[in-house]
Automatic annotation (TrEMBL):
Protein name listed in UniProt: Amidase domain-containing protein
Stored PROSITE patterns: AMIDASES
Molecular function GO labels: catalytic activity
Source organism, top-level taxon: Eukaryota
Domain Amidase: 77-342
PANTHER family found in the cross-reference section: AMIDASE, TRANSAMIDASE
UniProt xrefs under Gene3D superfamilies: Amidase signature (AS) domain
A Pfam family recorded for this sequence: Amidase
Similarity section: Belongs to the amidase family.
């Protein structure tokens, strides 16, 4: 849109006759004619568009700035190796949220694609200068703090936030907290390791093609890629705007629901959020989880993806554990059915 506005603005810097020639040429290329008596109307329309374009282009870029006095950042540092045993921390920081709220007292880590003002950002790479410090907070950062969360640091992500394993950062592989030397999954690898190890209560990961769900699976967590646009992506480094998503990672479904409730809803900035609910319309996800305990999973329909068990690389122990869990769900009166989604 901005490129189009600039193009129109440049077009109308020339004389009216030159613009009229362009109108005629464009109309001819599109196989329709502009009647001579309507040419003045077209010029008037383009002139009005130019005035609007100049008004837009004269405005400064909108840059949301955080209230650092409300949420000061303290103890910003890159942890020593001894304090970073899984190599899962990118940077440590202490930012205390408000008292009360759905996240009251919960410690939260953030994937290092999420901007936090005055805290350096690595993006899983040494190609980004360690001197890079965002000047804005991502919307989800403000919402975590507004809801009582305690942000304790930035979690390492894979190189430029790409990769399903946890070995691609130049700072060393992120270790699985349950099995040293094994992958924590990616690309939200640091979140997976830190939450899985119990160093933090919950975290916000990013997911374009599995980057929340894969480390959640590797580290025994609940990881949710929300519906596209439900959670604002404002202030998060982008991989692909049509699939960019951030969402909760936690050790329990209840904590994942609490975090989703805290960060969901339109922020009026992110254009990915067409149709998203306002903050006041966000569902009470945490209460929904609590209410579901009363009815259990009786009658819940659960699909088991056939293709997920068809890989020759599937470890027999993983297969057995998954099958045992599926059988247990059926014993608890869930309706379990095989489903197929051929690739």
């Amino acid at each position: 849109m901005l490129l189009m506005i600039k193009s129109l603005h440049g077009l109308l810097q020339s004389s009216s006759m030159a613009v009229l020639d362009d109108v005629r040429t464009t109309a001819d290329r599109l196989s329709f004619a502009v009647p001579a008596e309507h040419e003045a109307d077209y010029l008037a329309l383009l002139s009005a568009t130019d005035i609007a374009a100049q008004a837009v282009l004269s405005q400064p870029d909108y840059q949301p700035l955080p209230e650092l006095s409300a949420y000061p950042r303290t103890d910003v540092h890159r942890p020593d190796p001894e304090a970073n045993r899984y190599r899962a921390w990118a940077w440590k920081v202490s930012i205390n949220g408000k008292r009360g709220g759905v996240l009251d007292g919960k410690t939260v880590c953030l994937k290092d694609t999420i901007c936090v003002a005055d805290v350096p950002q690595l993006f899983g790479s040494n190609a980004i200068s360690r001197g890079f410090r965002p000047i804005s907070d991502a919307t989800v950062v403000t919402r975590v703090l507004d809801q009582g969360g305690l942000i304790v640091g930035k979690a390492m992500c894979e190189n430029f936030s790409h990769g399903p394993c946890s070995h691609s950062t130049p700072f060393g592989p992120v270790e699985n907290p349950y099995a040293a030397g094994f992958s924590a999954g990616g690309s939200s690898s640091g979140c997976g390791a830190l939450i899985g190890s119990g160093e933090v209560d919950m975290g916000i990961g990013g997911d374009q093609g599995g980057s929340i769900r894969i480390p959640a699976a590797h580290c025994g967590l609940v990881g949710l890629k929300p519906s596209f646009g439900l959670v604002p992506y404002t202030g998060v480094l982008s991989s692909e705007p049509t699939v960019d998503t951030v969402g909760p990672m936690a050790r329990t479904a209840l904590d994942a629901a609490r975090l989703l409730e805290a960060i969901a809803g339109s922020d009026g900035i992110d254009d990915r959020q067409l149709g998203a609910p306002s903050r006041s319309e966000v569902m009470p996800y945490a209460q929904s989880v609590l209410d579901s305990r009363k009815v259990g999973i009786q009658g819940l329909r659960i699909g088991v993806l056939k293709e997920g068990f068809a890989s020759s690389h599937l470890h027999s122990g993983v297969n057995q554990r998954c099958r045992a869990a599926i059988h247990h769900l059926a014993e608890m009166s869930a309706i379990v059915e095989d489903v197929s989604v051929p690739l």
